Amino acid sequence: IGFENQKLHDVILALLDKEESRVELDKTRHQYTAIGLKFKAHKSAEDAKQNKQLVLEQLQQVYKFDVVYRAEGADAWDVAISDADLLAAHAVADLNQSAVRYSEEDITFENVTIGELVGAVEKNFKVGLISDRKLLESGKYNFKLTKNDFDQAREELKTKYGILLQSRAELADLAIVSFK
Q1: Do the beta carbons of residue 41 and residue 13 sit within 8 Å?
Q2: pLDDT of residue 42
């Protein structure tokens, strides 16, 4: 496990293995703290999750924070392709650089994977999206979505791009990170 010149908050999110929308993080402390970290397990690294937990525990001691988990009902949305031809019409050649731009009314995505689209939608609308890993990494696309209305953005994804978001209620763990 290694991080080089990464914000402490981003490292904590990565070690918790949770979407940002499922973590409540105290943004007032260590907001700009950047760290470099290399972790090598003394035993064979069979369980990456256990190694992440060990690193997180060490960081908790050094930076003095607690992580508490709370079960919470959450709206989740399954991501599926409802019209592959419609989606293919927005495919672009991989330019090795993606961009997500936010204006007052919309979010413009250029040369992004479905995974990058999902991440930005989760962050902007504070919702959980669930999708197959293969879907997240397949192809690069251009999209433009309404920024301020999740229902309208869902409709645009379906009618303009052939991407369907289907509601699924689930019980999810919320991780609460508090600095002492």
Answers
A1: no
A2: 67
C-alpha dihedral sign at 145, 149, 150, 156:
negative
From residue 124, alpha-carbon distances to 26, 94, 98, 117, 138 in Å are 19, 24, 17, 11, 22
Edge-first strand order for the sheet with 128-130 is 23-25, 163-179, 65-81, 128-130
Token couple for 94: 């991989």
CA torsion angle for 100, 102, 107, 112 (degrees, to 10)?
Answer: 0
Please tell me the distance from the alpha carbon of residue 101 to that of residue 92, in angstroms, as a whole number.
17
pLDDT at residue 171, rounded to an integer: 62
Q: What is the DSSP string of 54-117?
A: HHHHHHHHHHTEEEEEEEEEEEEEEEEES-HHHHHTTB----S--EEEE-SSEEEEEEE-HHHH
Residues 6+ apart with CB under 8 A from 103: 147
Instruction: Report the candidate in 112, 82, 119 with the shortest Cα–Cα distance to residue 98.
Output: 112
List per-block mean pLDDT (blocks of 10 residues) for the chain, which spans 180 residues.
85 84 80 84 70 90 90 78 94 88 93 92 87 81 93 95 85 81
The burial class, CB within 10 Å (0-12 / 13-18 / 19+), for 66 is exposed
